Amino acid sequence: MRKKELYEKVITYFQQAMPVAETELHYENPFQLLIAVILSAQCTDKRVNMITPPLFRDFPTPEALAASTPEVIFEYIRSVSYPNNKSKHLVGMAQMLVKDFHGEVPDTLEQLVKLPGVGRKTANVIQSVVFNKAAMAVDTHVFRVSHRIGLVPQTCTTPLATEKYLIKYIPEELIPTAHHWLILHGRYVCTARNPKCESCGLNGLCKESIKARIPR
Asked: Can 139 be counted among the known catalytic residues?
C-alpha cells in the first residue's frame, strides 16, 4: 500500500472511531495548560489532574506563581515525577512570562521554548491545543504508534524526524486533532506492553499486525 493511501485510510478510521479527540489534562486557560503540560513530562495525565486543582487555586496567575519559590511549589507537586526540577521550572517559567511576555503565554515555537521546562514537544502541545496551529507534538505514544502502524519509516529515529514526516502527510487542518488521535490510541489501544491488537480497528492496516500474521 502506498504511503498516501495508508494515511488516508488511517485518518478515515480515526475520524469515524474518534470524532472528538482532545487533551485529557484539565485546564481553564493557556497558563494552566502550560503548567499541566510541564508537569506531565514522564508522568501520567491522571496524576497531573489530581494535583493541579490546589496549585491552580493558590497560583491563578503568572504573577502569583512568579512571586513564589520552588520550595513552596514542591509541596504541591511532590507526587509527580522529578518534582525538584519541575518546581524550579514552574517558578522560572512564570517569572519569564511576567518579565518578557506581559504575563501572557506566547504562541510561537521560538518564544515558547525559551521558557524554563518547555521543550519542543511541550511547545507544540501549547501551539496545537491553545492556538489551533498545525503543530505535531511527538511523545512516546505518538512515536510508538506512528512506527507500529507504518506511518513513518524506521529511519525516523527521533521525535523531530517523526514530527516532520507526519506533518508532511497529514492535512494541515487535521494535525491538531491527529496529535490526539495518536496519543489516545497509544494510551488505550496500542499500548507499549500487550497492545490490544485483537480489538483494534486498524488491525488490517497496521504494519506490525500484518507482520505478525505472516507465517515464518
From this structure: yes
